[in-house]
Recover the amino acids of this structure.
């Protein structure tokens, strides 16, 4: 017999069955609905065979012939007591006896506080230690208490929470500081109680049934302590997690309104009145807009207009009816002037504008912040990768960091979610019997080294424009070990690379120089096509009445204007016309004008390694016996000459993030980690060499894998580690040496012929 109705009583009853008891009876003085035990525990106990003797209470216990006779009396329920449950009362004359072997009393607990007395004068009240509920400090200095000894019977997590509060107070005490309770943050709710929440707010959500927990069959539970709850399958766990409505505000850690409400101890319900409810706008691909949280500060309007020159947002109506809206109060996702830069969300001090993470649920999450660089173009914008566990949550920026000073475009802020893509390549592959087969990294590297060694000096390496300086140094060592000088690129703009290699003194040095230019000459480029910081600065300059001249080639009018200007800027597209660029270079050399050509992430770092003459002539122009392609997909980009080159090559190794069209043609495919999983450096179009840090740990950093490949080839991976730094020093020492115009023209003509 087990006496009691709580979780401990249920545990005792179920454990007794497992220890071999033929029958277990649980006696409780109230009814089933009044039992404090969890409903699921009660149901499982009943399923396992526990009998319930409800509305009964022991009056007397007597031993008799090796048994125990328990005298019980029937009970009835009266008025509710302090706990809210109806009080049990004895039914006169309803006594009866039940013989049992063992009686287990599970009717409550207390603590042994006999150690407290005159010599240890600890304050005690009703058999519990008296302690401050915020700091867990007692009446004795340096003595703290928590858990059931203070609160009476409670859950383990409450005891853990008390331990946390006590630890924080102890830390203050041991450091000689005043003991203060932890900061209590302001939390806004949808009502004082659940009944106050408007159900209409949740009508748009599909109602999903709770997943049923798979349980061990009743027959398999007897006389053992096997786990009863078998756990959800992955599919069930995902379904159950999707039922969460994600009610928490994503801006909880950065909301200025919450910060001020906390500091000034604001009371949510101190002043109440009518509220106008606005529907949440989820139409934008990257942002959620909740006008109910908007404080009408106007920061999003100003940054959109004054910094980005776009004007996609504005105030509508007056007084209490004022809201911030896109054009014609349409959904934000339909706003034609929005360039999706995310500057509005970066300036919003509350949760009215929030990022929409490319995850099943938006959070909020506890984020780790890692400084990194955007790898989508050559401006070298500093970004903050915010991660939780092994997932990227969002990308942000800081106005005090980097050449971009907090400004980002659509790509830098919102296009990094591929980091979480489950379709990324994660396992190396080697072609066996005509098919790519998954293998270990060691086997893949051995196969790659064997094939590359066989081709030797007739190998060519092709590098993506976002190859870091450190990766390029290792690849250069690979090339040197093989005896080849063919370091090329399919995707890198050879025109831009040659310009930055031959004429670095003519290149613009940063965004500020673009903003300070008194004349902009746009040659073969439409600034409205691009929303990078450089082109935003160009557009803003035009809006601020800086003269802008446009055309496909230099005219007499443009030339005269450049000569008359104090600080002219010549702006090109990603692939400039070589004749126009040649004329622009001559003009810039005479006038002191600067030139801006948008390019790949590490263009000015890679010019120290690539054979630019061959790049300009066409990277696929010369046949090779083996190709190592690092992060490029020329076949997927419909480069037919590259596809033909790979078909004719005897051996191909591809490093990539996905199983691309190019990778599908390879003999060896090696997974390539992304910038968030690496550390290294880029040299941007302005000539700044900047480092980025690893945000996610995979153990497959590109530099580590390349070093292993170099070792398989018999090269010196230690010597190559300092090669990037040596290349930078070499570039710096030659910063005042420039090739003759005739060399530049010859190379560019060769590229044009290709």
């Amino acid at each position: 017999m087990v006496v009691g109705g709580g979780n401990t009583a249920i545990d005792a009853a179920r454990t007794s069955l497992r220890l071999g008891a033929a029958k277990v009876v649980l006696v409780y003085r109230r009814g089933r609905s009044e039992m404090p035990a969890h409903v699921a525990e009660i149901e499982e106990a009943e399923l396992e065979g526990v009998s319930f003797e409800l509305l009964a209470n022991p009056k007397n216990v007597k031993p008799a012939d090796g048994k125990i006779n328990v005298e019980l009396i029937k009970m009835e329920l009266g008025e509710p007591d302090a706990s809210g449950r109806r009080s049990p009362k004895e039914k006169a004359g309803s006594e009866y006896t039940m013989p049992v072997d063992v009686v287990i009393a599970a009717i409550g607990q207390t603590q042994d506080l006999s150690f407290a007395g005159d010599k240890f004068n600890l304050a005690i009240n009703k058999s519990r230690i008296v302690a401050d509920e915020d700091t867990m400090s007692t009446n004795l200095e340096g003595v703290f208490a928590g858990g059931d000894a203070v609160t009476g019977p409670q859950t383990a997590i409450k005891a853990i929470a008390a331990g946390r509060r006590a630890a924080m107070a102890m830390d203050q005490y041991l450091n000689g500081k005043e003991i203060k309770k932890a900061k209590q943050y302001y939390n806004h709710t949808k009502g004082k109680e659940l009944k106050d929440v408007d159900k209409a707010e949740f009508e748009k959500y599909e109602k999903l049934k709770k997943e049923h927990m798979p349980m061990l069959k009743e027959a398999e539970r007897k006389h053992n302590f096997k786990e009863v709850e078998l756990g959800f399958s992955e599919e069930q766990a995902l379904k159950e997690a999707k039922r969460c409505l994600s009610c928490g505000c994503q801006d909880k850690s950065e909301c200025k309104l919450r910060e001020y409400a906390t500091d000034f101890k604001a009371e949510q319900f101190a002043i109440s009145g009518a509220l106008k409810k606005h529907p949440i706008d989820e139409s934008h691909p990257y942002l959620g807009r909740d006008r109910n949280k908007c404080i009408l500060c106007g920061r999003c309007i100003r940054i959109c207009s004054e910094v980005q020159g776009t004007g996609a947002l504005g105030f509508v109506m007056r007084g209490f009816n004022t809201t911030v809206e896109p054009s014609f109060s349409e959904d934000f996702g339909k706003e034609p002037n929005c360039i999706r830069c995310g500057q509005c969300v970066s300036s919003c001090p509350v949760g009215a504008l929030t990022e929409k993470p490319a995850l099943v649920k938006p959070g909020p999450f506890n984020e780790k912040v890692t400084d990194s660089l955007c790898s989508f173009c050559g401006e070298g914008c500093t970004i903050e990768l915010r991660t939780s566990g092994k997932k990227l949550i969002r990308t942000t920026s800081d106005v005090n960091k980097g050449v971009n000073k907090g400004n980002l475009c659509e790509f830098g802020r919102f296009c990094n979610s591929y980091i979480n893509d489950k379709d990324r390549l994660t396992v190396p592959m080697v072609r066996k019997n005509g098919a790519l087969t998954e293998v270990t990294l060691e086997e893949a590297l051995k196969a790659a080294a064997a094939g590359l060694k066989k081709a030797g000096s007739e190998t060519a390496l092709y590098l993506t424009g976002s190859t870091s300086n450190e990766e390029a140094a290792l690849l250069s060592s690979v090339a040197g070990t093989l005896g080849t000088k063919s370091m090329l690129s399919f995707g890198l703009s050879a025109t831009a690379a040659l310009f930055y290699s031959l004429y670095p003194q003519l290149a613009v040095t940063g965004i500020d120089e673009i903003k300070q230019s008194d004349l902009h000459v746009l040659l073969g480029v439409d600034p409205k096509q691009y929303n990078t910081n450089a082109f935003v600065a160009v557009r803003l300059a035009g809006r601020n009445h800086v003269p802008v001249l446009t055309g496909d080639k230099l005219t007499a009018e443009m030339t005269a204007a450049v000569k008359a200007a104090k600080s002219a800027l010549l702006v090109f597209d990603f692939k400039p016309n070589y004749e126009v660029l040649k004329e622009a270079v001559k003009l810039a050399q005479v006038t002191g004008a600067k030139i801006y050509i948008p390019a790949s992430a590490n263009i000015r770092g890679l010019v120290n390694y690539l054979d630019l003459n061959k790049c300009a002539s066409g990277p696929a122009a010369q046949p090779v016996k083996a190709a190592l392609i690092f992060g490029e997909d020329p076949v997927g980009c419909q480069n037919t000459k590259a596809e033909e080159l790979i078909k004719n090559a005897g051996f191909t190794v591809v490093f990539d993030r996905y199983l691309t069209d190019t990778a599908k043609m390879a003999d060896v495919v090696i997974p390539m980690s992304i910038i968030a999983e690496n550390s290294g450096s880029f040299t941007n179009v302005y000539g700044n060499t900047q480092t980025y840090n690893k945000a996610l740990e995979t153990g497959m950093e590109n530099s580590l894998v390349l070093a292993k490949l170099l070792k398989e080839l018999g090269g010196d991976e230690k010597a190559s580690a300092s090669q990037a730094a040596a290349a930078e020093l070499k570039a710096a020492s030659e910063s005042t040496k420039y090739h003759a115009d005739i060399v530049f023209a010859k190379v560019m003509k060769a590229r044009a012929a290709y």
Residues 727-754 have pLDDT under 50 and may be disordered. The longest helix spans residues 156-174. The two ends are 93 Å apart (CA to CA). Residues 337 and 673 are 35 Å apart (CA to CA).
